[in-house]
Design a protein that fits this description.
It is built from seven helices and 18 strands. It is of the alpha+beta class. It starts with 5 loop residues before the first helix and ends with a strand. A hairpin with a 7-residue loop joins strand 16 (253-255) and strand 17 (263-265). The protein is globular, with a radius of gyration of 20 Å. It has a five-stranded antiparallel sheet with strand order 6-7-14-10-11, with helices on one face. It has a four-stranded mixed sheet with strand order 1-2-5-3. Helix content is 27%, strand content 25%. Bound molecules: uridine-diphosphate-2(N-acetylglucosaminyl) butyric acid (EPU). Uridine-diphosphate-2(N-acetylglucosaminyl) butyric acid binds at residues 142-143, 216, 225-226, 229-230, 235-238, 241, 259-261, 296.
């Protein structure tokens, strides 16, 4: 989609919003899949209410992207403008056991920056690709850690109300790969409270998690992490593996040989290839186990 509204285009510089016309989202997602559209990079959080007001006034549909690491975006010309936050500098501030982190900050860098200040707890999240905002929205978790456990406050742009609000941790529910944020909420800043731990001890935990991840996940291939949520008490990866589906492909979309719940883009997979593979695997699991797997990856539908 191209932004052609003159009022809106004229307003962008004063709002600190930078436009990349005809941006390729395949280049901005870890799966390497996605069509093209105009991308608006937001340098000032405070501009969001006005920007969204203008988009709505001009009836321009928009979507929001974080790190693009858990997303499956359609091919071709996209019917939405895409918004993304630029990282603030500094993006992480620490005082005592509290860390204030910009939503656009890289999650891995956040874990290590906090570790250097002897703040631990998030070791399991090392190696989870993406931004802190994306991790918050999904309540990212790994190796027994989930980010929600440490959240004390979130500053969020609530599109429905058209304003920026601060929510206390207790007002947000964090469940397995699910939160109570509204779909159109945009995370801006989070305040975490982290337990004190000596740096070397945290480093040891980080090394162990990195090692586990390297030995079980296809880290050097294009993927969106796990495609399906684990069903209660079960493991989607194990079920898909048991059915002998590793290596199953639709075009260049392929079930990883390393971890069966990772579907990789082994070349030039299209969104349609990936969606067809997801549907095929879901159906085979349903037939064999009577379980309908839910997507963990976020799929943008029209
Ligand atoms: N397994 C197989 N074959 C496979 C994959 C797994 O038999 O191809 C077995 C493993 O041997 C193990 C069990 O299934 O006994 C569970 O596997 P694993 O420890 O890899 O964990 P997972 O449940 O598949 C979850 C998260 C991952 C997270 C890991 C580590 C989900 C959907 N996945 O995977 O998160 O990194 O635990 O904590 O909850 C993600 O969210 O994108 C993601 C990758």
């Amino acid at each position: 989609m191209r932004l052609t509204d003159d009022n809106l285009l004229a307003a962008l510089p004063a709002l600190g919003v930078e436009r990349t016309a005809d941006a390729s989202l395949a280049e901005r997602t870890s799966l390497g899949i996605g069509g093209n559209t105009d991308l608006l990079l937001i340098r000032k959080h405070e501009s969001l209410p006005e920007l969204v007001r203008l988009l709505r006034a001009a009836a321009i549909p928009y979507r929001f992207i974080g790190g693009g690491t858990n997303l499956l975006i359609p091919d071709g010309e996209l019917p939405w403008i895409v918004l993304q936050l630029a990282r603030r500098d500094p993006d992480i501030r620490i005082k005592g056991n509290f860390a204030w982190i910009d939503a656009a900050a890289d999650l891995g860098r956040t874990v290590t920056t906090c570790a250097k200040r002897d703040l631990g707890g998030m070791e399991g999240l090392i190696g989870v690709p993406g931004t802190v905002g994306g991790a918050l929205r999904m309540n990212a978790g790994a190796y027994g850690t989930q980010i929600g456990s440490y959240v004390r406050e979130v500053e969020v742009f609530r599109a429905a109300a058209g304003k920026i609000e601060t929510l206390r941790g207790a007002e947000i529910s964090f469940e397995y790969r699910h939160t109570s944020f509204a779909p159109d909420d945009i995370m801006l800043t989070v305040k975490l409270e982290l337990p004190s731990k000596p740096f070397l001890e945290i480093l040891q935990g980080i090394r162990i998690c990195n090692q586990k991840r390297r030995s079980s996940q296809p880290l050097n291939q294009k993927s969106a992490g796990c495609i399906f949520k684990n069903p209660p008490g079960g493991s989607a990866g194990r079920m898909i593996d048991e059915l002998g589906l590793k290596g199953l492909n639709v075009g260049d979309a392929r079930v990883s040989d390393r971890h069966a719940n990772f579907f990789v883009n082994a070349g030039h997979a299209s969104a349609a290839d990936m969606l067809a593979l997801i549907a095929e695997v879901r159906e085979r699991v349903r037939k064999a186990y009577g379980v309908t797997l839910e997507n963990e990856v976020i799929v943008w539908n029209e």
